[in-house]
């Protein structure tokens, strides 16, 4: 076959360029405005052309041969007809085919695709440089069924354990997912090395992959029918201007707008079919082709600036004037913002660590004065009241105090709560001995009552050697109120009150409690503990762990002997709740310095039941939630935290399931099953 075209191949055909220049003999001269350069005069022969852009010479018909034939038989006649047509309506079939073909064949399409791919791959590379950002990128901590990591686990388990009942596979999938979350910091270095190597190879291949894909798409169809059909449905017309006004030709050729006034536009080739309500493409220096579903409004000055902004590398003009020079300053800005926005939309950033103090922009929140009641009233004194007021004056506590109705200083917290109509069972009576933040649900959110001991207040008022610890206990309850004010009040009520699976509801209820204790610990004002204080905290925490673990083990044995779910499940959950609240407080006490616990008695107790890695994960989850709580909008993080309830129970051979939507069942692993579970949790 005879070669039809040369090796200098135009990605913007000269037939279109000539409408923006001045004829000099057989050639046409245009002005080219390139990013970062002064405008220059050039013949259209050398503008928007590249050696072998579409294909190299071939004995068979090449892609460039096909495009040249299409230009000669279809495109050039269509461009000339549109350019010579009077201002007013034009054939939508012709307009649609011209706009679609020119937009997809250009270098802009390749270069912008390459820029987008490179930017996204670059952001993935950045995401894999730390385990915190990698967790977000890989969705390691997501419980959503559509999350890639969750799907991968479920698919692998189905392939390997197809014979296991679905309920068993679900429990196994949860266990594997949790264990992967716990061990991720250890797995990450090797994973990151492999991933970054593959990304590097891919980055090197991106340009050639895009060229190959672009060429194949053009070879298949010069104007993809779905795009053409969408544009054919528009009303097309030509708008004209009188000199010295003029239009420029961007390297993206056509732009799309979501509105009819074309003031905010994007390159048409970067928009999906359902995004735009109007499309514009200059066909000459005095004419622009416009398609719209309504009545378009075209302003030459603003349109030229938008056309320049939507260009990637250059635009063509018939003249160099003040208006065009001004537009050239914005060349490429829209594409740059578009590419950046694609990366910004990727949730690969780990939350930034929040400052404990709630002072913002140097401003201290207005102090909230909450009524202080003494029970009995004979305990009231100016000194005690001043001590409480002073503790509650911390800026970081004010958000919580706004929802506190009263602060009750009492000799007997259980009695004072019952006198105020609060139902207190034996378990709660034990849990509130040192103080509590009681929450009341209201139509417009929640309110709280703080109960603190007279003894703690007096220790602070008298500046006793234990005053620092007593002050931390009192502030702890106010810090819990911050949780309810900052988190619960922000999550829409319809989300909080929606019908949930029973296990999720149980986890969420317990998560509220231990999260509030974490906030209380972080905002208690205790600061970094001395070695002596840490040893005392370790003693208390280890005793709590031992008691809770014994309670869970007893509940397990009770179920094995009597098969009574109700009698076994409630005490098991109560001990898990108490253990999680104590663990949250322990994590908060070291402000995320998990390493400080590594040589503690408490960690040895946790290690004995395969929970030492879990302790680090809970600390990470709580710290991340605390750092990002100002931006909370849904319950996903709380549901994730609630899943820790099941994780603790697995270490004791207890698995919860929901055989019916209203029922929670308790299964207990025994003998070899229990050994296998423990092996998995220690692997």
Give structural notes:
- It is a single chain.
- This protein is α+β, with helices and mostly antiparallel strands and 683 residues long.
- It has three domains: 1-348, no CATH class; 368-489, Collagenase (Catalytic Domain), CATH 3.40.390; 498-683.
- It is built from 26 helices and 19 strands.
- The strands form five sheets. The protein has a six-stranded antiparallel beta sheet with strand order 6-7-12-11-9-10, with helices on both faces.
- The two termini are 67 Å apart.
Short description:
The protein is an alpha+beta fold and 683 residues long.
Task: Sum up the structure in keywords.
alpha+beta; Collagenase (Catalytic Domain); 5-stranded antiparallel β-sheet; 26 helices; 53% helix
- The residue-averaged pLDDT reads 89
Q: What spatial order of strands do you see in the largest sheet?
A: 6-7-12-11-9-10
Count of helical segments?
Answer: 26
Structural class: alpha+beta
As a percent range, the share of strand residues is: 5-15%
Instruction: Please outline the major beta sheet.
Output: 6 strands, antiparallel
Note the gap between the termini.
67 Å
Integer tally of domains? 3
